[in-house]
Amino acid sequence: MEIKVLVENRTCSSDFACEHGLSLYIETGKHKILFDMGGSTIFLENAHKMGVDLSLVDIGILSHGHSDHGGGLPAFLDLNKKANIYIHEKADEGHYARRDQEKIAEIGISPQIMKAPKIICTKGDWQLDEGLLLFSSVDKKQLCSVANNSLLVQNHNEYVKDSFEHEQNLLLTEKGEKILITGCAHRGIVNIMARAMELAGGPLDAVIGGFHLSNPSTGQCEADELIAGVAECLNSYETKYYTFHCTGIEAYRKLKMTMGDKISYLATGDKLIF
Description:
Blueprint: E1 2-7, E2 23-27, E3 32-35, H1 42-49, E4 59-61, H2 67-70, H3 73-79, E5 84-88, E6 95-98, E7 104-106, E8 119-122, E9 125-129, E10 132-135, E11 151-155, E12 158-161, E13 169-174, E14 177-182, H4 189-200, E15 206-209, H5 224-235, E16 240-243, H6 249-259, E17 263-265, E18 271-273
Parallel strand pairs: 3-4, 4-5, 5-8, 14-15, 15-16, 16-17
Antiparallel strand pairs: 1-2, 1-18, 2-3, 6-7, 6-11, 9-10, 10-13, 11-12, 13-14
Helix pairs in contact: 5-6
InterPro entries: DHPS-like_MBL-fold, Metallo-B-lactamas, Metallo-beta-lactamase_dom, RibonucZ/Hydroxyglut_hydro
Protein name: Metallo-beta-lactamase domain-containing protein
Organism: bioreactor metagenome
């Protein structure tokens, strides 16, 4: 299995452009998967430079309904006519971010996307194939990002806090390896891991994803107490962690102080082989 970071907030080389967003290319023994499509077309340009032919992708996944993960979806639909795109049925329900007391910005994907050919609306746990499971059934029990409080949905004529029902995660199982892929882990990486281990029937070998430990509107990371709690929980498992994007570099450094070599940062252009 090979995983390539097509775009995230930082880059490993000046050869690759980056942006606030996420897109991963995942190649298993049976499938070529695009997990999120970034906020623009940058992921397409980087894919070409990394030798990835996105026209051959046969499975597309949108982790949740925010534009920094789905902004490039229209461009991918223009390029690729074969892949089914799996999107949670609530991903288009109007998503917003409170920038300050006065300004609320739209950060969602276009509802028209859901009407495109090859779009499959998911909910709950969704088996894509043997060893490929999408799941959104996660309880927000503990250690969730406080920055989530500024992320909203529109309910009739008012804005309310997003419950993140539209967030889905990918559990990969291949050759005995159990790997969790998350987009932003708005429901809490500790909670998502707990559910993934229930579904996998045991511990995970690797977790790859954003942990949402920083606020993109302010640039500030979460409180030390929350980050320390996340680090303690993650460190209690014999799992290797790879993170990026909404974790934020400051929060990552704080995690690494506790977790050491168990956690690494992946930037645009990086790749993993399992």
